[in-house]
Task: structure prediction
Amino acid sequence: MSKILNKLIALVVLISGSIAFTSCTNLSPDKTFEIAVLNTNLLSQFGSKEINRKLESEPQVYDETQKKMIPSSYYDYFKFEIANLETKLEDIKGINEDDDNRQLLQASKDLFTYAIAKQKEGYLPIAKMKDDKASSEEIEKAMIDFDASTQKEIDAKFTKLMNVAQAYAAKHNIDAKFGI
Result:
């Protein structure tokens, strides 16, 4: 009797796990919109505005062992922030694409992929400059150069996503405000 009960429990756990996994990847339009569009707020100050804001704050990272934020270098702080963006990108990639959400997901992945790559190429060297006590003029020049090389492309990717997002929101009656 206990063998049958154990097998029955294992079967229920397996079925429950399958349902939970399937429900996590087949999301409602609202949830898809939330993950693919609303998370782009993390990129809203991309470039020198964001770099300046972060360089003016106390650099901290989350320490899993202590379960709290701890002081760090600016380089590690920027790496920590980029890792958070990479987690958001993985969340987007985890959504099943279909004809309804494909454009939205692709535009979101394109924006996040570009932003992450450029932050690794630009933010991290600037953070290292700050850690190495480079002059404010050198840091400012690096930020200006970064903006010059990325701003047009990031703006185009944001615009593309927002255009697709507006159509998706209208189609699914999602109450979302666009613009400033």
